[in-house]
Design brief:
binds flavin-adenine dinucleotide, 16% strand, Elongation Factor Tu (Ef-tu), domain 3, five-stranded parallel beta sheet, 48% helix, alpha/beta
C-alpha cells in the first residue's frame, strides 16, 4: 500500500485541496458546502483505490517483484479493496446525509437548483447517479462476502468477478458527475485517467485475459499418491515454459470450471524436465483431485510467480517447513545437490504431524545429504513440535530464516526468534499458502 496507494491518495487529496477555498480546508464552511467538497474527495479516493486494486488484479510482473511476490500482492489487493469499500460507504453516506439530517430535523429541507454536471446531459446525470448506488451496493455486498471465510473459495472467486463490473459502473458515475468546471483541472483529469485505465483492466478481467501471457500448456506426465494422501504430480510443460527459480509457484488449471489453484513448484528447473508439484488434500477440490487427475491430462501452468528467494548459497541459513510447506525447499535442495551442495551451513527443520506424512518425499535424507543440508525431521505426533529454542540456537549465526507452513506457527516462531534469539527484522522470509 505504502508504495503506490498512499502516494496516489495523497496526490488526489492535494489536487482536490488546491481547488478548495480556505473555509473548506479549515472545515469552517456551511454543512452543505463541506458535504459537496467531501463527496467529491471521497468519490475520487474510492475510484483511485478501486483503480489500484484493479491494477493489482492484473498481477503485472513489475508490481509482483516490487511487492515481494504474488501472495504479498494479493494481500495489498485485499486491503486496497477494503479501503475502497469503506470510502464508497463514506461517499454514499455523505450523499444521503442531507435527506437524512433534514428528516431528523437537524437541517433545513434542501431545494436543489439545476447545475451543469461533467460530460453528460440531465438524463445521463440521472442515470449516473442511480448507477452510483448500484456500484456501491455491489462493492459493499461483495466486500463483505470476500471477507467471510466460510464462503468456499470457488464461490469467492466467481463472485469476485463482480468487482470489475462495479468498477466500470463507478467509472461511468465518476466521469459523468464530476462538475464540468473541475473535469479539466489536474484533479478532474486524474479521475478520468484512473477511470479509463481501470476500465481497460476491468474489461480484461471480465474477458479472462489476466495472466494470459504467462499461461503455458502442459501434460500430466506422472501421478502418484503417498501413504499420507499427498499427490506427487509431474507435469511436462510446453517448450515455452520460461523456467523458474527455487521457491516459486504456478497457478495450475486442470479443470477450466474449477479455475486455477496455486501450487509450489517442488523441483529445480532443468530445460525439458517435468515440473513437480506436491499437493495435499486440504479442501473440496484437492480432496477429490487424486481420483480425477491422470497421466496425459492437459493442464495450464501459469507463472512462475512468487519471491520466496533463497538468496546466496554461501550464507548460513535456517529453514523451517511444516507439512506440505516442504514444497519450496525441495526445489532448493535439488538445485543445491546439482551444484555441489550448500557452501554455507543450512539447518533444515521439517515438522510433520504423522509418521505417514514423514514418508514424503521419498529419499529426503539422501537429498539433504547431497545438498549439504542438515535435516532435523520431527514427527509431532511422536516427538512433539519443535520449540523455538531448538531452532533459535542456530539463528544468531544465520543470515535469516526461511519458513513455509501453518500461519499460526509462523507468527509464534517469528516472534520468539526475534525476541529471544536475535533474529533481525526482515530476516524471517515466509511463503504464505494463502491468497485470501
Ligand atoms: C502461493 C501458494 C502456494 C501453494 N503451494 C501449495 C503446494 O505446493 N501444495 C499444496 O498442497 N497446497 C499449496 N497451496 C495451497 C493450495 O492452493 C490450496 O490448498 C488449494 O488451492 C485448496 O483448494 P481446495 O478447493 O481443495 O480448498 P478449499 O476448501 O476451497 O480452500 C481451502 C483453502 O485454500 C485456499 N484456496 C482454495 N482454492 C484456492 C485457489 N484457487 N487459489 C488460492 N487459494 C485457494 C482457500 O483460501 C482456503 O483457505 C498453496 C497456496 C498458495 C497461495
Amino acid at each position: 500500500m505504502k508504495r503506490i496507494a498512499l502516494p496516489l491518495s495523497l496526490l488526489i487529496v492535494v489536487l482536490w485541496a488546491v481547488l478548495q477555498p480556505a473555509e473548506i480546508l479549515s472545515f469552517s464552511a456551511p454543512f452543505l458546502t463541506m458535504r459537496k467538497a467531501l463527496t467529491l474527495l471521497t468519490g475520487a479516493l474510492a475510484l483511485g483505490l478501486m483503480g489500484f486494486s484493479m491494477l493489482l488484479a492484473l498481477r503485472p510482473a513489475w508490481l509482483e517483484r516490487s511487492l515481494g511476490g504474488l501472495d504479498k500482492l494479493f494481500k495489498v489487493h485485499k486491503w486496497a479493496g477494503i479501503s475502497a469499500v469503506l470510502l464508497v460507504v463514506t461517499h454514499w453516506l455523505l450523499i444521503l446525509s442531507p435527506r437524512t439530517l433534514a428528516e431528523w430535523g437537524w437541517i433545513e429541507k434542501i431545494i436543489r437548483p439545476n447545475r451543469p454536471h461533467g460530460a453528460g446531459g440531465e438524463s445521463l446525470v440521472g442515470l449516473a447517479k442511480e448507477m452510483g448506488e448500484w456500484s456501491a451496493w455491489i462493492m459493499i455486498v461483495l466486500g463483505i462476502v470476500a471477507l467471510l471465510r466460510f464462503v468456499p473459495y470457488g464461490w469467492f472467486r466467481k463472485l469476485h468477478k463482480g468487482f470489475p463490473i462495479a468498477f466500470l459502473i463507478g467509472a461511468f458515475h465518476s466521469v459523468i458527475l464530476v462538475p464540468k468546471e473541475i473535469l479539466t483541472t489536474p484533479f478532474g483529469m486524474l479521475n478520468v485517467v484512473i477511470a479509463l485505465v481501470g476500465s481497460v483492466i476491468a474489461v480484461q478481467s471480465l474477458a479472462g485475459m489476466i495472466g494470459r501471457n504467462r499461461k503455458h500448456s502442459g501434460r500430466v506426465s506422472s501421478v502418484s499418491v503417498t501413504e499420507a494422501g499427498i499427490i506427487d504430480l509431474q507435469v511436462t510443460p510446453s517448450t515455452d515454459w520460461p523456467g523458474h527459480k527455487e521457491g516459486q509457484f504456478a497457478l495450475l488449471t486442470l479443470d477450466r470450471k474449477e479455475g486455477p489453484h496455486p501450487f509450489t513448484i517442488a523441483s529445480d528447473w532443468k530445460p525439458g524436465a517435468p515440473l513437480r508439484f506436491a499437493i495435499k488434500p486440504l479442501g473440496d477440490y484437492t480432496r477429490t483431485l487424486a481420483g480425477r487427475v491422470k497421466v496425459g491430462d492437459a493442464i495450464t501452468v501459469e507463472g512462475p510467480y512468487g519471491r520466496f528467494d533463497f538468496g546466496d548459497v554461501s550464507e548460513e541459513q535456517v529453514w523451517v517447513a511444516g507439512g506440505i510447506g516442504i514444497a519450496p525447499f525441495l526445489a532448493r535442495l535439488e538445485s543445491l545437490a546439482a551444484s555441489g551442495g550448500a557452501q554455507g551451513k543450512v539447518h533444515f527443520f521439517y515438522s510433520v504431524t504423522s509418521a505417514a506424512e514423514a514418508t514424503f518425499p521419498v529419499g529426503l535424507e539422501d537429498l539433504c545429504w547431497r545438498a549439504g543440508v542438515d535435516l532435523h525431521l520431527r514427527v509431532d505426533a511422536i516427538d512433539g513440535q519443535f520449540d523455538s529454542g531448538e531452532i533459535g540456537q542456530f539463528v544468531n549465526k544465520a543470515r535469516g530464516v526461511w519458513f513455509c507452513g501453518p500461519a499460526g506457527w509462523a507468527r509464534i516462531l517469528q516472534t520468539a526468534l526475534q525476541q529471544n534469539h536475535g533474529l533481525l527484522p526482515g530476516r524471517f522470509h515466509r511463503e504464505v499458502f494463502e491468497f485470501r
